[in-house]
Design goal:
By secondary structure, this protein is mainly α. Helices cover 45% and strands 0% of the residues.
């Protein structure tokens, strides 16, 4: 058998430094509990409290996201309820909610007694 050598490829070029001049290393594993401190986090917390405008923007974004998720959850619940109601109607062949059924049986008994 002939011995084949793999061609060597040069390493990929490094991305340019961010505008702030601070280069943060990315942690491929995301760091675990045993990583030891904040060095395991790819996005460490801020060293100082951000200014009011930044906090306001972050709060507005969080409220928008929560509102979006909340409305999606309600929409999904309503759609699932309608789907299960339709499925029950198809399986039973009539209205699957007993509280919505006609009260003909109860009215007939009272008419016969009186």
């Amino acid at each position: 058998m002939a011995h084949q050598e793999k061609p060597t490829t040069p390493p990929p070029p490094h991305p340019p430094a961010p505008e702030g001049g601070v280069v943060r290393a990315r942690v491929p594993g995301g760091g675990g509990a045993g990583a030891g401190g904040a060095s395991g986090y790819p996005n460490p917390p801020e060293a100082a409290v951000p200014d009011a405008a930044t906090l306001r923007d972050q709060w507005r974004f969080a409220v928008r996201q929560y509102s979006r998720w909340y409305s999606h959850a309600w929409g999904t619940a309503i759609l699932a309820g309608a789907a299960f109601f339709a499925l029950g109607w198809l399986v039973k062949g009539s209205n699957p909610l007993p509280s919505r059924a006609g009260h003909d049986g109860a009215d007939a008994k009272t008419k016969e007694e009186g």
